[in-house]
Design a protein that fits this description.
The complex is a heterodimer.
Chain A: H1 9-37, H2 45-63, H3 66-88, H4 95-114, E1 127-129, H5 137-142, E2 144-146, H6 147-165, H7 167-177, H8 179-184, H9 189-213, H10 227-237, H11 242-256, H12 258-264, H13 271-275, H14 277-289
Chain B: H1 8-19, E1 36-41, H2 51-63, E2 68-73, H3 80-92, E3 97-100, H4 106-113, E4 121-125, E5 137-142, H5 145-158, E6 163-168, H6 173-189, E7 194-199, H7 206-218, E8 223-227, H8 232-240, E9 244-249, E10 260-266, H9 268-280, E11 288-291, E12 298-300, H10 309-324, E13 330-331, E14 334-335, E15 341-343, E16 348-349, E17 366-367
Parallel strand pairs in B: 1-2, 1-3, 3-4, 4-5, 5-11, 6-7, 6-8, 7-17, 8-9, 9-10
Antiparallel strand pairs in B: 10-12, 13-16, 14-15
The chains are: A mainly alpha, B alpha/beta.
Transmembrane segments (chain A): 6-31, 43-62, 68-89, 96-114, 141-163, 190-211, 231-258, 270-288
Subcellular location (chain A): Cell membrane
Main location (chain A): membrane
């Protein structure tokens, strides 16, 4: 059956972990990157993620189709984003405060509506095996790539291209960098931000559906251990660049696999420390790449934290 | 903290009392005495396919009893929150019998709250009541390590790689006893078997449990069990990696019908109804209650289709020995996994030996560390 790989398990597990764990980080951070590029911060994505996980699982269970589950999660995520966007368009409303309220609302609603769906088993999303070339079962298992991961990767490239060289990307960037300039161009900043927040919410919902429909693949109230919040932080780490979001999500997923894997090869002392690896890594990268002169490079000008 | 925990419920109950007792309609019997209010507090959701569900099934049995009302609260953290929940139940629901069911509630939360309410009985699961602690506190638990020992026997027969795996939450005595028992059961079949343990550090962390299960499968473990609050993720992930699974807390066979060997389950319904009946009859529950398979505190899941005849025979024979009482899974000659002697030849710790409840070692053959 399984082959004894010795220490080769570690890099393999990091790759496997990066593929398995990164998808929710990726979708939430892409959604947040879009929202923040338009000049708003949506901290509510953790709640959207959890609600997306619940609604995706419920829809998949009720319809028997995991893809309809993903669709339902995207729609419910968009609704949350829309609500956030609309409330924040009212005068003198702070987007961060609204986001925190939305986060708690999303989790509360998900727990409330999710009760009947903890027990049933919903169909899971399919994955594609890229390990056909190997006879080693561990390699095959690590290279089981879910379709949503691939979609997320394509989405990251598409968003990067959109920001760089399309009209839509330009509009979002202008609105995010200067409300006055956007108005002078005849754009409607509030509308653009509402749309960007709604689409960002839809992404986060899909990230939640990945959690409940693929990995770990079931709905319960502890499904998210703060991935939504960490992903919001990853956006700043990735300097609002979708391609960097992809890299940051992979890094985070891979580092998260380190704790369990080290224990499995016998490095069992101090596992609490290894579990902190993703956070230590984040701190390390931030310190290494920090610079007093370009601390806010890439930050949208209208963001409430940069103003 | 010297300020007593303040809760919304407590505030409401105080103001409601001012507004007049009629504000809170009380259920009453024809002869005027109010039903006994029993409170259950869970650390997680009560339908988690695991620890909390097992307790909630016991609570459901209590709910069906005559003369009893049940109040329940789930997702209560092992912090000052549980003190607030207990105070709320006592002050607002007039609860006289409380079941705070999570290990971490005991010290300091139950021990601090109990002296303030001498007329309320606190029945804590998994704690270790000892002389000198408040007398209105009781501890009860079951020898579920024996269930993991039996799990281990089916695992020992099922494994082909001679490596079995254990996803564990925290290195507390009950978890360590389960890990050790699982391996020692398997070693009754083949003394070459080793058990890889991975601690996740929390009672419920879905993604980390899935990662731990994958890491075990990568390391070659082909039978996996766990001690986390909700074993659903471990069971589904392990079965997805083509490993056999042994259940824990509740029956998880619907999650992996082909791969499920057996499982160690709690059987709280009989225990809880018995305790509530004692209180209804005006009696006192013992401060320290333990029981095993023979006492109906725990039970085993029906054996799955993958269990061989040889495995079934050894399982049933060992189960009969345990039912007869005084069975010792931890017996000498036995060392821990860093070489210290646990028990010399001829020595052993029977299932009801109190020394097992302060276990702080992993036995030889377990790959892992308690810190």
């Amino acid at each position: 059956m399984e082959t004894d790989l010795g220490l080769w398990v570690i890099p393999l597990a990091i790759i496997g972990g990066a593929i398995r764990v990164s998808t929710p980080f990726l979708f939430v951070s892409l959604g947040e990157a879009l929202t923040e590029r338009s000049g708003r911060i949506n901290l509510g994505l953790e709640g959207t993620l959890v609600f997306g996980a619940m609604s995706g699982y419920a829809a998949a269970y009720l319809t028997g189709s995991p893809w309809l589950g993903v669709f339902a999660a995207a729609i419910s995520g968009a609704m949350f984003g829309l609500l956030h966007g609309l409330i924040c368009s009212l005068p003198k409303v702070n987007d961060i405060a609204v986001g925190i309220a939305m986060m708690i609302l999303g989790m509360g609603l998900a727990f409330y509506f999710g009760k009947p769906f903890v027990q049933p088993v919903a169909p899971n999303l399919p994955s594609i095996g890229f390990g056909w070339w190997s006879d080693v079962p561990q390699v095959r298992a690590a290279l089981q790539v879910n379709v949503l991961f691939l979609i997320g990767a394509v989405l990251a490239v598409a968003m990067w291209w959109m920001f760089r060289s399309t009209r839509v990307g330009l509009i979002v960037r202008v609105v995010g960098d200067s409300t006055d300039a956007a108005r002078a161009m005849g754009l409607r900043p509030a509308l653009v931000r509402i749309c960007a927040t709604a689409v960002g919410g839809a992404f986060a919902g899909v990230g939640g559906a990945y959690l409940s429909l693929y990995y770990p693949g079931s709905w319960n109230e502890g499904i998210s251990s703060g991935q939504g919040l960490m992903a919001v932080a990853l956006v700043i780490f990735a300097r609002w660049n979708p391609l960097a979001c992809f890299g940051a999500a992979l890094l985070f997923g891979g580092a998260g696999a380190l704790g369990p894997t080290l224990q499995s090869v016998g490095v069992s002392e101090g596992y609490y420390l290894f579990f902190a690896a993703p956070y230590v890594l984040t701190l390390g990268v931030l310190i290494v790449t920090s610079s007093p002169t370009r601390a806010m490079t890439g930050a949208p000008g209208e963001l409430s934290i940069t103003k | 903290m010297s300020i007593p925990p303040f809760s919304r419920r407590r505030f409401l109950s105080g103001t409601a009392a001012l507004a007049g007792a009629t504000a809170m309609p009380q259920l009453a019997f024809a002869d005027g005495h109010a039903p006994l209010s029993v409170g259950f507090i869970y650390v997680g959701p009560k339908d988690d396919f695991g620890y909390n569900q097992a307790h909630a099934e016991g609570a459901a049995a209590v709910k069906a009893m005559e003369g009893v009302t049940v109040v329940e609260e789930e997702n209560v953290a092992e912090t000052i929150d549980v003190q607030k929940s207990m105070e709320s139940m006592i002050n607002f629901d007039e609860t006289k019998l409380l079941f705070p069911t999570s290990f971490g509630y005991f010290d300091p939360h139950v021990l601090e709250t109990a002296p303030k309410h001498p007329d309320v009985r606190f029945q804590h699961a998994a704690g270790l009541w000892s002389e000198g602690m408040p007398t209105n506190v009781g501890s009860y638990f079951g020898y579920i390590g024996m269930g993991q020992y039996l799990n281990g026997i089916t695992a020992g027969h099922a494994t082909t790689t001679k490596k079995i795996g254990f996803v564990a939450a925290k290195p507390i005595p009950q978890v360590l006893l389960n890990i050790n028992s699982f391996l020692l059961g398997a070693r009754q079949v083949d003394p070459e078997i080793t058990c890889q343990v991975i601690f996740t550090g929390e009672w419920s962390l879905a993604v980390k449990e899935a990662e731990a299960t994958n890491a075990l499968a990568d390391a070659g473990c082909d039978v996996i069990t766990c001690h986390v609050d909700g074993p659903k993720v471990v069971m589904e992930t392990a079965a997805g990696r083509d490993a056999y699974v042994c259940g824990y807390h509740a029956n998880q066979s619907p999650l992996a019908p082909e791969k499920y060997l057996t499982g160690a389950e709690w059987n709280w319904a009989g225990v809880y109804t018995g305790m509530v009946q004692t209180v209804l009859d005006g009696g006192t529950i013992d401060n320290f209650v333990r029981g095993g398979l023979a006492d109906g505190f725990i039970k085993m899941s029906p054996l799955g289709p993958a269990v061989s005849d040889a495995s079934r025979a050894q399982f049933e024979a060992t189960k009969a020995q345990i039912m007869a009482g005084g069975f010792a899974a931890i017996k000498g000659p036995l060392n821990d996994n860093s070489g210290n002697v646990i028990a010399a030849a001829g020595e052993g710790f029977a299932e009801d030996d109190i020394a097992l409840e302060s276990m702080d070692y992993l036995v030889e053959g377990v790959i892992g560390s308690t810190s």
